[in-house]
Amino acid sequence: CSVPGQNVFVTSLSGPATLKWGQVMGLRGILSVTFFHLYVVVFTSYWPLTVLTIIWMIFDWKTPQRGGRRSQWIRSWRLWKEYRDYFPLKLVKTHELSPKHNYIIASHPHGILAHSSFCHFATEASDFSKVFPGITPYTLTLGAFFWVPILREYVMSSGACSVSKASMDYLLTGEGRGNAVVVVVGGLAECRYGRPGFSKLVLKRRVGFVRMALQHGVALVPSYSFGENELYDQYIFPRGGWVRHFQVGFQRLVHVYPCAFYGRGFTENSWGLLPYRRPVTTIGGPAIPKMRPSRDSDKYHALYIKTQYGISETQELEII
């Protein structure tokens, strides 16, 4: 076990808990489940089980756009507390959110794997339901996670839903009040900037969340996780090389930048895919009330400002 104040060895639960989120977010989760089903169909006599799961997925296809299927039991696993304490991750409440209203929480930055957003909004590790009583968070994520049998059930159990207009329309109009739709605005496009010393937000052309707030008359809550970009390093390939050309071309094709990131291993000073044990503090609010549709979204950009958490005086927040 680790000694308080030292970073010698990852504790027995915090490391696996952190890797568990990496498996869900990474392609490993999708590929492993996909190949498992292919193996069952081709090499075993249990292929009817795979057929049944696919039939269920087709029947249940629209659930990720209609509030999902959260499990408070899974959200409250003790494992997530260990995950929170690994860094540690901290959620700072600055203003109350009324359960009489709905909200869109705009989360920044994405970083590599959006650890803070997952911890605070997709689990009860930070006691969200106690910090904001009467508010139900719905983290919106890639629709691809809901295309894979079994994996989709696990993702939905966290309260996650598909990041689509239909999903937001339903949560902001068809599910009553007290809903907080969480959108990591920069998305995977911000992964390339998820390294120490970088404070860039992909935001100038991301106006959809603002339009949805105006359309439904809901308050917009800015949220910034200071330190999220400090959790991994990246290998930056030289300009003009074939690897850089591949990265740029791949991003243009599927809007995902395949970055070569790395962190630490299970022991100090070792190389691995665990994030570095560095504190991340998430500050939310205050809520921005409904504004007239004629207003320019630049006014919202000005509200994402630097504070004492995680951004030094020599570091500037750049919006691209």
From TrEMBL:
It is an enzyme of class 2 (transferase). Keywords: Acyltransferase, Endoplasmic reticulum, Lipid biosynthesis, Lipid metabolism, Membrane, Transferase, Transmembrane, Transmembrane helix. It holds the Pfam family DAGAT. It is found in: Endoplasmic reticulum membrane. GO terms for biological process: lipid metabolic process; monoacylglycerol biosynthetic process; wax biosynthetic process. One of its GO terms (cellular component) is endoplasmic reticulum membrane. It is a multi-pass membrane protein. The chain crosses the membrane at residues 36-59. Its EC number is 2.3.1.-. GO terms for molecular function: retinol O-fatty-acyltransferase activity. Belongs to the diacylglycerol acyltransferase family. This is Acyltransferase. It comes from Monodelphis domestica. The lineage of its organism: Eukaryota, Metazoa, Chordata, Craniata, Vertebrata.
